[in-house]
Amino acid sequence: MNVILADECSFSRSGLAGSLATVLHDAVMNPAEVVKQRMQMYNSPYRGLLDCLRTVRRTEGLAAFYRSYSTQLTMNIPFQAVHFITYELMQEQLNPHRRYHPASHILSGAAAGAISAAVTTPLDVCKTLLNTQENVALSSVHVSGHLSGMANAFRTVYRLGGPQAFFKGVQARIIYQMPSTAIAWSVYEFFKYFLTKQQMAREGGAGPT
Questions:
Q1: For the residues 12-29, what does the mean pLDDT come to?
Q2: Among 27, 71, 84, 168, which one is most buried in terms of CB atoms within 10 A?
Q3: Are residues 137 and 161 in contact, defined by beta-carbon separation less than 8 angstroms?
Q4: 2-202: which CATH architecture?
Q5: Chain-wide mean pLDDT for the chain?
Q6: Among 113, 131, 17, which Cα is nearest to 72's?
Q7: So where are the chain's domains?
Q8: What is the rounded distance in angstroms from the CA atom of residue 155 to the CA atom of residue 30?
Q9: Residues 133 and 146 sit within 8 Å (Cβ to Cβ)
Q10: pLDDT tens-digit profile of 25-61?
Q11: This prediction's pTM
């Protein structure tokens, strides 16, 4: 019973840590995401990074850089929570003694990224629409002006393509996230192992296995 409670506490802490980190990360990175996605649009009207920043600020105001912030958080908080919890669950199965084991870290990281990406794809679709404000898409459903708010984004995506529209690009998102999270976790676990081993050596211990 105590072991089960300890595991539940560990998973809760992992989910909470990921969520809090996301709030701070997205506050800083949301404007960069807006600029990146606008420059990636087909026939993007922007000549470069600075031109995009200046044009968006002049025509839409600073609020445009945070129009998708609530959607970004709504997506990334569950993404990180599912990500961390899935990694911990996979490690419980593949590496219960929590030794440094590269194969288990890669597999656990890839699985965590794939599952997190799949379940949060609908929110990513809405976030992209809010960031890009694609005129062709919005005019096709008779939306004038700038689209704002997660609820409006959900309604607009549904009008554009029905339920299946929320999973546009899900395969590409999974393929992108799997190697990304596998690499991140394997590098993290390697340096944790390496630094712990160095510390143990300085203290005269045997070091981790």
A1: 73
A2: 71
A3: no
A4: Alpha/alpha barrel (1.50)
A5: 85
A6: 131
A7: 2-202
A8: 22
A9: yes
A10: 888 888 998 998 889 887 888 888 899 999 999 998 9
A11: 0.71
